[in-house]
Amino acid sequence: DAKTTQPTSMDCAEGRAANLPCNHSTISGNEYVYWYRQIHSQGPQYIIHGLKNNETNEMASLIITEDRKSSNLILPHATLRVSAVYYCIVRVAGGTSYGKLTFGQGTILTVHP
Amino acid sequence: DTGVSQDPRHKITKRGQNVTFRCDPISEHNRLYWYRQTLGQGPEFLTYFQNEAQLEKSRLLSDRFSAERPKGSFSTLEIQRTEQGDSAMYLCASSSLAAQETQYFGPGTRLLVL
Predict the structure, then answer these.
(1) Beta bridge partners of A48
(2) Mutate to test the interface with A, among B60, B103, B110, B111 (most CBs of A within 10 A)
(3) Which of A28, A31, A12 has its CA nearest to residue A75?
(4) Mutation target among B105, B109, B111, B112 for the A interface, most CBs of A within 10 A
(5) CA B19, CA A30: separation in Å to the nearest integer?
(6) Residue B10 banded pLDDT, cuts 50, 70, 90
């Protein structure tokens, strides 16, 4: 699986949008971009994933650049409870590939009042 | 709540004892994964099952570790002769082809070896 690079930490004001970047310059054509977050002492929580089109769900939006070498996770109207470690992961999905997740260090997002 | 449950949530044991953890995946998910997470690090892959078959084991899974999924439903992870270095959070996740193999994690079992 391709390696990802994320900033170590980011801050965001409560009520503002949080924009978390991720670089994955060696991504392959059949690899998806996944985002998970982990609040202290809990299991990772799936947020969103995409292949090449932008995706949106009730939790976040995923913006993938046209060359697929980077992406941004956008959390609209951040609240204090979304302070967590955010992991950007690239993996093959579907078919016969089991696609284990390779976690990096992630980005520690702190939302301030 | 993702639908993946793990038991126990916390375990304290003495060095040299054996421990066993259980994971119950989302019912229709045929793939099950175990990860281990130490303090300050991201989760690391340990092993993977498709139905009852264990198809991949990480080098992290020493001979003291064994995992089973006897009927393709719940899974157990056993650690024999525990060492202090085994102290970690043990996470279970499950997925299905129908859901594009998105992995959903349980709450984890936190192990402390004294």
Answers:
(1) A35
(2) B103
(3) A12
(4) B105
(5) 39
(6) very high
Query: Does the pLDDT value for residue A94 go beyond 70?
Result: no
Q: Which is it for strands A45-50 and A31-38: parallel, antiparallel or unpaired?
A: antiparallel
Instruction: List CB contacts of B46: < 8 A, sequence separation 6 or more.
Output: B33, B34, B35, B36, B57, B58, B60, B61, B65, B67, B77
Closest listed residue to residue B57, CA positions, set B34, B78, B79: B34
Query: What is the maximum span of chain B, computed from C-alpha positions, in angstroms?
Result: 42
Distance of CA A47 to the CA centre of its chain: 7
**Strand pairing class (B88-95; B19-24):** unpaired
Chain A, nearest residue to B106 by Cα:
A43
Q: Taking 80 as the threshold, does the pLDDT of residue A96 lie above it?
A: no
| Cα–Cα distance for residue pair B4/A71, rounded to 1 Å | 29
